[in-house]
Amino acid sequence: MPRRSSLPVTFVVPTLLILLVLSMVPTLYAIIIALQNRELSSPDYSYVWFSNFADLFFDRRFLNAVWVSVKWEFVTVIATMAVAIGLGVLMFEVASPRLRNVYCLLFIIPVLLPRVSAAFVWKFAYHPLYGIATYPYRLLTGGLIFDPLSKPSTALFAVASVDVWQWGLFFAVIVLKLLETLPPQPIEAARLDHAKRWQIHAYVTLPMLKAPLISLMFVKMIESLRSFDLIYVMTRGGPGVATETLDMYAFSQGFIESGKVSYASAMAVLMMIATVITFTMLWKRVQS
Amino acid sequence: MRPGRLIGKTVLAFAGFMAVFPLLWTALNSLKNNVDIITRVPRVVFTPTLANISYILGRDSVMTGLYNSMVACGVAVLIGIVLGLPAAYAVARYPNRWAGDIQFFVLSLRFLPPVAVAIPLMVIWLQFGLYDTLAALIVTYSLLTISVIMWLAIPAFQAVPKEVEEAAFVDGYGAYSVFWKIALPVAARSLIGAVAFSFVLVWNEFLIALMLSSSNAKTLPIVASELSQQGMNVPWGILNASVVLLSLPPLLFLGVLSGFLNSVFRQKKT
């Protein structure tokens, strides 16, 4: 390659400048708005500095939203990885190459759906009277009503099941492809030692895939934070505040209930700081 | 081992069924009259009707949403291609001490919570008088498309054999014509996958579109979600039809994306 070429500069610099402007302007502006007392209903505002942030810590709905978000992260990430590894290993073990291709195509379909579509599909399916997913329950109990989306104890799991339906199946495809890229020798050696199939995966193949699996988990942790569309369509944060995550609460404070844009922005800024710090630290550890 | 295999196959078949059945059921419901949807026992045999679909396709709000979605996503993806692909090539082929930082910066854009971006952008676009316009949506979406295309295209360009490019340099090609005539065509298959992926992401986007539009610039997901709020009498059939319409464009890319996954993991092997 020729050493002296203007290509790297002309190709990289404009794009990076645009990305920097497009990301830094809203980020800095979010912080500025969070330090003010803007409301949607009036054009006047002044600086109140950190009082929005201070108020947050005495806001029980905010603390609840933090807790719901943490629960949501744990439930969706763990369930997605469990489904992905389980189905990926199963495909690897019992499906013929042709069947694997069929399953791979089928398992990619849910993740391609817009979250709004996926949410509607399952909102119908969970309908207590006419839903297809609640039909077996009605059939077995002779018509009793099961309404998972409006019971506080099950609502979060019902919404999470849709997230896992989308991502778990898709990740299963990736786990299968990862297993297929492994060299066959260690597996055969373990087989010669009379290892059982589950032992081969638990002690040989999955440890060999530790790094890519951790990266997958990392991707899912980031994507799990974008659950707004699912929750907005399926429960709007309800029943009560049972499924109200941070972005849902920020949205309803800022736009539906009171129009407190600055208060919502303070929440969003806290969320941003927490995610950037957590994920940067995790990323550096994954890389090293 | 035999019964174990049988159980495994059954579980897999069930998972495959679960993957598509809910969507197929929705498609089926979109062909039903309301009476056939609202039944205690799900009805498989019914007289099909096209009324829901023609109602959806005949509504101005749906057509505007479809148009807005296509323009906003199309232009944003185009901007992503024009700015993202060359940048990805430069990062992949002209490594310097910034390359790692650039890649991390591009990835870190994905950490930003959408609410944190949408609130200030709403205030900014209001001040510029661009709130509720397609231009505002396109600029916002470009951040997404550029970063996603860059992130996926860097490995795609790295997978192009260096020898091919070096041979072209020896033949007297300049750096730019190597990019145009060698790197782009050789990496084309993976690049199309990356572009398709970014299209699906912005087509499916909801929160930003919801906050940056109020009437003129609503995209299809917003229109679809509003259909559900029409009073007490939920138009189930119509809703199902709108879900199907909204889901079709991303599904068109199913083949491209599964081919993309295959090529990504084949490269890893070598």
What would you say this structure looks like, in words?
The complex is a heterodimer of chains A (288) and B (270). Chain A is globular and about 75 Å long. Chain A contains 13 helices and no strands. Chain A is mainly alpha-helical. The model of chain A has no long low-confidence stretch (mean pLDDT 89). Chain A starts with 6 loop residues before the first helix and ends with a helix. Chain B starts with a helix and ends with a helix. The longest helix of chain B has 34 residues, at 60-93. In chain B, helix 1 (2-29) packs across helix 12 (236-252) and helix 3 (51-58) crosses helix 12 (236-252). The model of chain B has no long low-confidence stretch (mean pLDDT 88). Chains A and B meet through helix 1, helix 3, helix 4, helix 5 and helix 7 of A and helix 1, helix 4, helix 5, helix 6 and helix 7 of B. Chain A: It is found in: Cell membrane. Chain A: Belongs to the binding-protein-dependent transport system permease family. Chain A: This is Sugar ABC transporter permease. Chain A: Residues 66-282 form the ABC transmembrane type-1 domain. Chain A: It is a multi-pass membrane protein.
Summarize the structure.
The complex is a heterodimer of chains A (288) and B (270). Chain A has 288 residues and is mostly helical.
Radius of gyration of chain A over alpha carbons?
Answer: 24 Å
Characterize the main sheet of chain B. none
SSE arrangement of chain A, N to C: HHHHHHHHHHHHH
The helix-strand sequence of chain B is HHHHHHHHHHHHH
For the residues shown, what is the average pLDDT of chain A? 89
Q: What is the arithmetic mean of pLDDT of chain B?
A: 88
> What would you call the quaternary organization?
heterodimer
- How much beta of chain B, percentage-wise? under 5%
Helix content of chain B: over 70%
The class by helix and strand makeup of chain A works out as mainly alpha
Poorly predicted ranges of chain B: none
The fraction of residues in strands of chain A falls at under 5%
What's the total count of β strands of chain A?
A: 0
Number of helices of chain A: 13
Termini gap of chain A? 30 Å
